[in-house]
What does this fold into?
Amino acid sequence: MKLSANLQESFNDQINAELASAYLYLSMAAYFEDENLPGFAHWMRMQNEEETAHAMRFFDYVHDRGGRATLKGIGEPPSDFRNPLDVMERTLEHERKVTVLINRMYQLAIEESDYAAQVMLHDLINEQVEEEKVAEEIVDHLRIIEGDGTGLLQIDARLGERTAGDGQI
Ligand code: MG
It folds into this structure.
């Protein structure tokens, strides 16, 4: 069954949203590189790769379903951040927005009785639970240490250990 025009538009919007996420995380990686926090920078680079992979899942899916991916413009991401907590709070806020977008796509797939699209979205819905959980944990840890340098370096070391597929797709 071919993807409906509405769903195709929604999937195309999501390709753009995922690539915009990737771009945002790359900008955050640049901030951490500049701050000499290699663990945070590594974590953000992995976020960048993951979001690009999500975009490609939607890209491929549109074509698998007889549609056509069309690419839209991506705005300039923020580059001024106050501190690591500011970056991670923005990450959490961003992931919550992405969850809303994916939930809306799922709602549309339900309204259009597109069962295949619903199943395709299951992975991404699960992924958002993980994204929000992980970002929230880092935010909470940064609040616990309240800018303590030793604590910050400990968190940096832990984030540096993240490997591909570390509980996330
Ligand atoms: Mg994503």
